[in-house]
Design goal:
Largest sheet: none
Order of helices and strands: HHHHH
CATH class: Mainly Alpha
Number of domains: 1
Distance between the termini: 36 Å
Shape: elongated
Helix content: 55-70%
Number of strands: 0
Structural class: mainly alpha
CATH topology: 434 Repressor (Amino-terminal Domain)
Number of helices: 5
Radius of gyration: 18 Å
Strand content: under 5%
Length: 100
């Protein structure tokens, strides 16, 4: 079945807007997306646990404003703090990966 000329894949759109994979602009975009995704995952886990930002902050030993900044991708988060948020605050397990 032939594809319509008006339909493009996500990669085609990203190639046009940010350049091909491996270019500086595309890499910066993808890094930003990963950081956004992390904040979103924290927010969804918090909601699933039925916690407010304040409650999560108290459990993790930080403050509500910090949790808000993490969830909204405004704050760079240290691994040690992220571990406290995920493991102590949410009762989860933080897993990191390095892909080469």
């Amino acid at each position: 079945m032939a594809r319509s000329k008006n339909i493009r894949t996500l990669d085609e759109v990203l190639d046009e807007k940010f350049g091909k994979r491996g270019t500086a602009t595309r890499t910066e975009y993808e890094r930003g997306f990963e950081e956004f995704k992390l904040g979103y995952l924290i927010q969804e886990a918090r909601k699933k646990k039925g916690l407010t930002q304040q409650e999560l902050a108290e459990k993790a030993g930080t403050n509500k404003a910090y949790i808000s900044r993490v969830e909204n991708d405004i704050k760079d988060v240290r691994i040690s703090t992220l571990r406290k948020i995920v493991e102590t605050g949410l009762g989860g397990k933080l897993e990191l990966a390095v892909k080469l």
